[in-house]
Each structure stands twice: as C-alpha cells, then as structure tokens.
Amino acid sequence: MSDKTDATRANDVAFIQALAELLRENDLTELHVKREYGEHDWLNVRVARQTLMMPAPVQVAAPAPAPAAMAAAPAAPAAAVEDPAQAPGAVTSPMVGTVYLQPEPGAKSFVSVGDRVTEGQTLLIIEAMKTMNQIPAPRAGTVKRIVVEDGAPVEYGAPLMIIE
C-alpha cells in the first residue's frame, strides 16, 4: 500500500510542477485545480505567481528622490539590494505551497524582524499537498526582512526572508 501512496505522491508532485510550468509558459497569474481520487481523497492545488515584485518598486521609489540629487550610480546598488532573491542572506522556498508565519491562526509568529535565530530554528511553515512543512533557519543570524505575507502562495526558489 505504501508503494501506491509513494507513486501517488510522485504523480502529484509531477502534476504540480506541470501546473507551475503552464503558469510560466502562458504568462498566467494563477491556476486552481482540484483532483479527486475518491470520495474522501483529493488534491486541491492553487499555483500563483509571486506578487513580491509589486512592493519592490514602491520601496525603491521612496528613497529615489534623495539619490536623484546625487547621480544614477547610487540608485543602481539600491535597486540590487531591494531584490530579495539577490540578498546574501536570502532564505528561499524549498517547495511550492502556501506560507504560514505562525503555527496556527491567532498564534504568535515563529519569528519577527529583528529576532535572533539559531540554525535549525523554525522560521515559518509551508503547506504543500495537505502537509505542513516546517522551514528551518539555514544559519544563525538576525531576521532583517520577512519578504512573504502570511497565507501567500510561494514558488520553488522564491525568497521568504533575509537573515544576516
């Protein structure tokens, strides 16, 4: 029976990856599919593009007036720093899923900006295929920025937070 479960999981992962590829290839923003295996067994998948690119220009635009008096050169490093995926301390998503910043609704967040974390400490949870996956800190440091919002969908490799 476990072989069938492993095969089903492998098929589900391949299915989710194919949905993500469709999203990219067709320039879609979101797909939502429900696969039914039986009366009490189903897979409900929502794949959405990361909307993190919207806040980044707003954050870059705020400091832009001050460097405008200087030269365009200081603006270029600021833009590079604002891309969370390029930050040296970026923690990225190991899977496609939905991010939860606290263990349950209404509970205190696992971490907040400014918190010191130890290697292996739980930073957040990503729900994927009806499984809650704890995402540990890859190294000790201080949480400088939390890039994702609670309940937001994430793709594989998407930046989650920055630890320095």
From TrEMBL:
NCBIfam families: BCCP. Keywords: Biotin, Fatty acid biosynthesis, Fatty acid metabolism, Lipid biosynthesis, Lipid metabolism. This is Biotin carboxyl carrier protein of acetyl-CoA carboxylase. It comes from Roseicyclus persicicus. One of its GO terms (biological process) is fatty acid biosynthetic process. CDD domains: biotinyl_domain (cd06850). One of its GO terms (molecular function) is acetyl-CoA carboxylase activity. InterPro entries: AcCoA_biotinCC, Biotin_BS, Biotin_Carboxyl_Carrier/Decarb, Biotin_lipoyl, Single_hybrid_motif. This protein is a component of the acetyl coenzyme A carboxylase complex; first, biotin carboxylase catalyzes the carboxylation of the carrier protein and then the transcarboxylase transfers the carboxyl group to form malonyl-CoA. Pathway: Lipid metabolism; fatty acid biosynthesis. It comes from the Bacteria. The gene is accB. GO terms for cellular component: acetyl-CoA carboxylase complex. Pfam families: Biotin_lipoyl. Residues 88-164 form the Lipoyl-binding domain.
